[in-house]
């Protein structure tokens, strides 16, 4: 017996009985109604794959209007249900009218059993496919909203961060391309997520691609998709990131790592707003909002011939620079407190605190790994400490070395900062000793720390 539920509505009892007998041999569930007024309450209780609906209920009136009326009612209540109209009159106009209103098909009385069964089967199939499409669409919607709800909060209250967030709010509502720059771990991806969340595309996907992690051979297939057989491993058709992000936002992270010879392919897709899957010759239009991020100096890469100037112009309509954590003053402690609560809860160590000396240490450190490094430092301290109050020694921070903290282009102010930092690192929590090492008084050191916004 085939899967399928059918509601037959006809005021002619003998028609109802004949159809019931014919169809109940073939399909799982058949219900009959002789009074169409019961249709709405019946449909409230049950979803049918098919309604076989009489066109003319009032004897002597063959306008078909009552059938059309009930057809509309059914479509409104159950848009996925197929409706096949039954009429004794071969009126083509009526049939066309019913089809235009949303009927799936038309059957004439007296009917031919084989033909009627074929019509019913295909109408049921259509309704079941529509149901599947609706449920897939719903699943897609749920998936998108659950993906988008994984958004993390942006913590911080420094004027530097506020400036960034103001810019984010301004550009989010537009469709302009945005380039986000900043050191590793400053929160560039988080800013991209925030732009998407505040944009008109927020119900669609934010699709991220790490341009530094895609192998050159798979670049085109990853971004533009491929058709079955395009290359040895292409066993099925597959959409690329551009297509998946259609109507949403495409986030190209580490754009500065994209090899030069692939940049023109990306540029072409962005300019033409269409892509062609690998192995296909059909172009597909795509509607995406583009956000790129990098920790590299793109104008310098252009100067060195490593990044296309036309691509840079295309991606940086709006430029957002995310400042490093060391320049965000108060944010260090605000974020430290946030991560303390987060990991305190995770490792079941509630009400942890950071003492003054440890706060000083966190404030003075230059955080080359930015917020990511701060988060790891706090997590580690929470795991390893046995006390309620975390002390300076609980934070294992890398000694300030390497090119990031001492670039060749230090100016006088930066050199001063650097020297003060090193002295403070050497004498954690002991301002007097640090001042002595620097050959200045304690008060002068305080004044300098304040003036240099350290
Ligand atoms: N303002 C913030 N509030 C809370 N968490 C933050 C904030 N900024 C960054 N983070 C967290 O720090 C980590 C690093 O952030 P993110 O990945 O966005 O940085 P990024 O600049 O994109 O890094 P990379 O350049 O290495 O890709 C993430 O776990 C992120 O959730």
From TrEMBL:
GO terms for biological process: phosphorelay signal transduction system; regulation of DNA-templated transcription. One of its GO terms (molecular function) is ATP binding. This is Sigma-54-dependent Fis family transcriptional regulator. Keywords: ATP-binding, Nucleotide-binding, Phosphoprotein, Transcription, Transcription regulation. The keyword Glycosyltransferase does not apply. The keyword NADP does not apply. Transmembrane segments: none annotated. It comes from the Bacteria. The modification 4-aspartylphosphate is found at residue 54. It comes from Marinilabilia rubra. It holds the Pfam family Sigma54_activat. Residues 154-383 form the Sigma-54 factor interaction domain. Residues 5-124 form the Response regulatory domain.
